[in-house]
Amino acid sequence: MFGAGGGTNSYREIEETDVILLWGSNARETHPIFFHHLLKGIHHGARLFAIDPRRTSSARWAESWLGLEVGSDIALANAVGREIIAAGLVNREFVENATTGFEEYARAVEPCTLEYGERETGVPAEAIRGMAHAFARAERAMICWTLGITEHHNAVDNVLALINLSLLTGHVGRYGSGLNPLRGQNNVQGGGDMGALPDRFPGFQHVEVPEFRRKFEERWGVTLPPTRGWNITEMFEAMGEGELRALYVLGENPLQSEADQNLARRRLESLDFLVAQDIFLTATAAMADVVFPAAAGWCESDGTVTNSERRVQRVRKALEPPAGARDDVRILFDLARRMGHDWGEPRSEAIWDEVRSLAPPFAGMSYARIEALRGLQWPCYDDDHPGELFLHARLWERPIVGPRVAFHPVENDPPVERLSDEYPLRLTTGRRLDDYNTGVQTSGYASPLRRGESLDISPEDARRLGVHDGEVVRVSSPRGRIEVPIRIDDGLKPGLTFLTPHFPDEVATNLLTIDATDPRSGTAEFKAAAIRVDRLGGTGLT
Amino acid sequence: MIDDSLWFRPPPRPSQTPVAPPRPLIGMVSLTIDGQSVEVAASSTILEACRSIGVEIPTLCYLENLTPVNVCRICVVEVTGARVLVPACSRRVEPGMEIQTDSPRVALARRMVMEFLASSVDLSTAPQALEYARRYGARPERHGAAIETVEQPVKIDNDLYVRDYAKCILCYKCVEACGTDAQNTFAIAVAGRGFDARISTEADVPLPDSACVYCGNCIGVCPTGALMFRSEFEMRESGTWDESRQSKTDTICSYCGVGCTLTLHVQENRIVKVTSPMDVEVTHGNLCIKGRFGFEFVHDDPKEESSPVG
Fold first, then answer.
1. How would you label B102-116 residue by residue, b for 16+ Cβ within 10 Å and e otherwise?
2. Banded model confidence at residue A412, pLDDT cuts 50, 70, 90
3. Residue A445 and residue A478: Cα distance in Å, rounded?
């Protein structure tokens, strides 16, 4: 946000903040060690507000659980913003000195009263008011979110709605105040930082800025495309339209992780040529023309990864990979050699030093310093720089350093798939503590917590449907149907159901989910499909 | 697309590097330790004061990341004018304190602590405790062979870790790590009184029926090997556990984006145990079930059917 894509605070700051909005995140299960820091904050007196359609194990630690309707996050955020303005709790000094567009924002949220908020989100007006006042009045406050915000067709708008709240209250750019997306994978932060995005070079340098492009062209001795490329969703669309004919997939299992499996399969099958590079023969790799067996990055190779507090840390080789498997970087080097470019011997430190020389935010992070300090947080501009504990301190300088940041008014836009008489239940998805994504890694260990997949439903719906705990039912969405056992979860409200993606070979959750996608972020609306539940062999019930 | 110059360029640097707000100033206190003058922050414990001048104090139930519970009594020192010996791990320094860390009273107390422990508990996988027993001349055998012990069968009720309470010295570290000092799951506590006190799940149910979430942070702090990875336990049973042939490599967990440091203990190209360093700011030595136990997928061998839990 504000030109640098990363969480603005460090984990240790949440131990000393006053108010925490945990929005669309079950960090207790999905980011357990981050939650340790959060719990220290609670023990030190911080007030936790959990905003989540499900009353999760995280929400159980909260002073207040705001169990909003799936996909009504913007309505809630706008109602919070409107209440902060109406109650005179805006941080005037910050808004005047560091932002633009406040008047426009205030006009946009003016209709979003507490009553509107209650109507659109299902959260009692008093609870919305309570959170708004606590957040605005706090000396320090942080907003943390996960995929509950970003796995929607309007993911970017959802994030902007949260940013607006932090601008309104000045809760950014200070110790213990900020905006923090909790990253779901061990290097999703580093991947973006390194330019594994359709529009960036390493260090957030946009490809459409000529001066950045020239720098990389000169160093690499090539001409680079002057416009942004496709994100993964655009790539899959381009496959559908026949524009993209060959695909090289590294360490990803899109057949089982894309939101609409039948559609993803058709598109992958339409390719002329598919290459997969992975540590396992995943379902996607099984479709490929060529498979490169890779070493496990985190324990069979050397390099760095970057975490949710922007900390660049070393991964080190502890094991020899199985015979025939090679380090990802070595595979790329070998491929380049076959294509007529000899890049020499791959050395992770040499590659990192090239990054440092081209991307200013990483310039000061030598391997020696990363090792000695057990990681460094970007930006770290030179060898004496300690790395930034929190971002955007410039917004509090008088006069402000650099450009002001803008409010972006956004409108509530409910999930693409509306509930209907035919599909009357809302399906949302998420992860559990002991399993991970499509289970490629976690299926290897015997977790005593693992119960296999289930469709979690509320006690009220179970009664209405006449189904009991453990009963296998048929679950259908407009795109597909699966059979799965029922599990009754009293953390779910009537009308809400829950599945994970962890057991795709037994329960292909992505046969049900919808690929309605935010064109700006490329993320699909995994969090909101419409389903019906039928008893097997019995009469249809919904 | 977003109409914002910050969309295209990284933001400029602040004129000063962001830092945490200053902490309140803490005054200094002067005291003497074994006749040596020392000045430390007023918030220090006697243990910290001793360590600051290189005086070693033995500890069993103390750990930097846990709240002191004062139960093992091995760290006791003599404070001039005090009626009883005081635990160095939790007692704060006071101006003018005179401390003896190695007086005959202290040595006797430590010898008795180790004698009682060594005569009632199996310390065979507790090298630190054995070293203290040797150092303080503990002779547990003088209490006779008929003395009561905490001997009992090993609890093996899941695939990830075992609990061998015949090796438990009741230091409370696991209870604290499971509780407010780290995990906040509260699956275990001390049950019973006197010699019958023991670490127990609620109503002594097996772990799979308890609140346990298998983070293994209790294993990470256990000083005696009472809590042990099942892989380590089975290798020890079969005589293949050999630390002299193990390497330890720090890397970063492959799961979520928190970025926990994992120390991989590797023997014969297999991960046999996972720990995390105490001094890492991200973890403080703690992990979750995936980070600590979810490594099997990298082992290049056909997956064995897990044995029935019993």
1. eeeebeebbbebbbb
2. very high
3. 35
Distances in whole angstroms, Cα of residue B291 to Cα of each of A155, B202, B295: 29, 26, 7
For A32, other C-beta atoms within 10 Å of its C-beta total 24
Is residue B48 within 8 A of residue B28, CB to CB? The reply is: no
User: Domain spanning B28-105: which CATH class is it, in words?
Assistant: alpha beta
* pLDDT > 80? residue B2: no
Query: Do the Cβ atoms of A184 and A147 come closer than 8 Å?
Result: yes
- Is A188 close to B9, i.e. CB distance below 8 A? no
The rounded distance, in Å, linking the Cα atoms of B141 and B163 is 26
Percent of chain A with pLDDT over 70: 98
- Rounded Cα–Cα distance for residues A407 and A166 (Å): 10
Residue A173: half-sphere exposure toward Cβ, Cα within 13 Å: 27
Homologous superfamily (CATH) of B161-298 is ADC-like domains (2.20.25.90)
Domains within chain A, CATH numbers bracketed: 11-181 (3.40.228.10), 188-377 (3.40.50.740), 425-535 (2.40.40.20)
Instruction: Copy the structure tokens of residue A443.
Output: 């299926």
Chain B closest-CA separation from residue A104 CA (Å): 15
- Residues in A closer than 8 angstroms to B267, CB to CB, are none
Paired strand residues for B189? B200
Start and end residues for every CATH 2.20.25.90 domain found in chain B = 161-298
Nearest-neighbour CA in chain A from B107: distance (Å): 38
Does residue B183 belong to the interface with chain A, where contact is any CB pair within 8 Å? yes
Place of tokens 């959260």: A123
pLDDT of amino acid B110: 98
For B155-173, the pLDDT digits (tens) are: 999 999 999 999 999 999 9
Distance between A206 CA and the closest CA of chain B, angstroms: 5
Q: Which residue has the tokens 């796995």?
A: A151
